[in-house]
């Protein structure tokens, strides 16, 4: 179901890594901006200075009004990849995001939420989108943060993905000899269990008209795309008219909202 927006909102998007704002939510961010909403991005594990610079460049292309970063490092997808993380050169950063206790991370996120007082917060899915443990811990910590400072009016949404896409990616990982039950730097993230306990999305937003802005922003992340999951690598190469079938709608799940809030009137 397509949802329209009414009125101007302050929106904070909380993501684990530089590139998530574009590759996972670029169409949605551009749509929110086009509809007159103020969008800020908080990135928890942005990477080195080069990647932070590219994050800011992509956010300019999407129309984001402000970008803030914490200084955690990116976690490997599996325990045996510990020496091959994309942040392997950033030893000066704080610990790997997936190893930070959710309550500690939540306090840092809550501070930024309190500062900006958004109407809406959007973050990753509970199952880490394609099985990324950093994304999953970002979801848990953001939910705790909103619960602690959100008050009565703030809404929290998680990004959701077609289950067939997630399951195809999981199958490809298994075919490649990777476990989906022992993911993350310490093997504690179980994608299969996370999917089983997750719930379906509740809102669908048409963002097809914004895919041009998303593609422009994605050019900052050619390196990350080349290293990403196979479905993403393939989809990023197809013409925009074909991308509409995969990226033309942003689906979200309502995680928190004021009692009685009517989502048929907007986000």
Describe the protein's topology.
Layout: E1 10-17, H1 20-23, H2 26-34, E2 38-45, H3 49-62, E3 66-69, E4 72-73, E5 94-96, H4 102-116, E6 120-123, H5 133-149, E7 155-160, H6 163-175, H7 191-197, E8 203-206, H8 211-218, H9 222-227, H10 230-235, H11 240-247, E9 249-256
Parallel strand pairs: 1-2, 1-6, 2-3, 4-5, 6-7
Antiparallel strand pairs: 7-9, 8-9
Describe the structure.
About 3% of the residues have low confidence. The chain is globular, with a radius of gyration of 17 Å. It has one domain: LmbE-like (Rossmann fold), CATH 3.40.50. The chain is α/β, with parallel strands linked by helices and 267 residues long. Helix 3 links the parallel strand 2 and strand 3. Helices cover 40% and strands 18% of the residues. A 7-stranded mixed beta sheet has the order 3-2-1-6-7-9-8, with helices on both faces.
What oligomeric state do these chains adopt? Answer: single chain
The CATH topology is what? Answer: Rossmann fold
Strand content: 15-25%
Identify low-pLDDT runs.
85-91
Radius of gyration: 17 Å
* Number of separate helices: 11
Structural class category: alpha/beta
Shape: globular
């Amino acid at each position: 179901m397509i949802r329209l927006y009414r009125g101007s909102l302050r929106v904070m998007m909380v993501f684990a890594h530089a590139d998530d704002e574009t590759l996972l939510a670029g169409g949605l961010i551009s749509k929110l901006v086009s509809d007159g909403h103020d969008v800020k991005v908080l990135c928890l594990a942005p990477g080195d200075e080069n990647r932070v610079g590219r994050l800011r460049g992509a956010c300019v292309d999407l129309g984001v009004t402000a970008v803030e970063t914490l200084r955690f490092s990116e976690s490997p997808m599996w325990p045996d990849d510990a020496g091959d993380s994309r942040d392997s050169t950033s030893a000066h950063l704080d610990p790997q995001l997936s190893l930070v206790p959710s309550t500690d991370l939540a306090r840092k996120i809550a501070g930024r939420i309190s500062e900006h007082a958004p109407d809406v917060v959007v973050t990753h899915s509970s199952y880490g989108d394609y099985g990324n443990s950093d994304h999953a811990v970002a979801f848990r910590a953001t939910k705790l943060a909103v619960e602690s400072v959100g008050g009565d009016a703030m809404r929290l949404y998680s990004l959701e993905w077609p289950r067939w896409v997630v399951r195809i990616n999981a199958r490809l990982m298994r075919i490649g000899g990777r476990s989906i039950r022992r993911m993350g730097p310490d093997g504690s993230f179980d994608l299969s269990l996370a999917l089983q306990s997750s719930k379906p999305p509740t809102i669908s937003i048409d963002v097809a008209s914004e895919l041009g802005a998303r593609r422009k922003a994605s050019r900052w992340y050619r390196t990350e795309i080349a290293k990403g999951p196979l479905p993403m690598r393939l989809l990023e190469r197809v013409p925009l008219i074909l991308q509409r079938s995969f990226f033309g709608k942003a689906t979200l799940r309502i995680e928190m909202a004021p009692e009685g809030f009517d989502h048929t009137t907007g986000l």
